[in-house]
Write a structure and sequence with these properties.
Layout (H helix, E strand, L loop, with lengths): L10 E10 L3 H11 L3 E9 L4 E8 L2 E8 L7 H6 L2 E9 L2 H10 L10 E2 L5 E5 L9 E5 L7
Parallel strand pairs: 1-4, 5-8
Antiparallel strand pairs: 1-5, 2-3, 3-4, 6-7, 7-8
């Protein structure tokens, strides 16, 4: 996966692929048992997004299953229509600086300032209209954490 041109030189790695599901407990067995992916911890509630997140490891890649934890969750309407790929998340080292650069380049930002994400990360979303039709998340992991 190649990040949008405006992110080149800013991206450290693909952080995760997020799959929106109606119910993690119904879908997780397919990934864990059928495909053999490793489950990393238990589902985590992310209050800011009103979602539950379960992380799975596929080799060196992270897959995040996300389910709405409330009817007013940002992904509730998404899963009403369909379950599936929700967004790609790119890891960056300095989220604030990247957001300033992208805004100056004319990209449409959903978040102009970082907000809390799962596992003590800081995140921000870019509008799909600026990213080839793909909802894009930028993730800055805490300095004390490992990839």
């Amino acid at each position: 996966m190649i990040p949008p041109p405006e992110l080149q030189g800013q991206v450290v790695a693909l952080h995760h692929v997020a799959i929106a599901v109606r119910d993690i407990s119904n879908v997780a067995p397919f990934y864990a048992k059928s495909l053999g992916l490793e489950t990393i911890g238990e589902p985590e509630y992310v209050a800011d997004q009103k979602v539950n997140v379960l992380v799975l490891a596929a080799g060196g890649q992270r897959i995040e299953l996300i389910e709405p934890a409330s009817p007013d969750s940002p992904i509730s309407r998404f899963v009403e229509k369909r379950e599936g790929l929700h967004h790609l998340a790119w890891q960056v080292d300095d989220l604030e600086a990247v957001l300033v650069r992208l805004k100056a380049a004319g990209l449409r930002l959903i978040d102009e300032n970082p907000r809390p994400g799962a596992h003590n990360t800081r995140i921000a979303f870019l509008h799909p209209a600026s990213c080839g039709g793909v909802l894009t998340e930028l993730v800055q992991i805490p300095e004390s954490a490992s990839n």
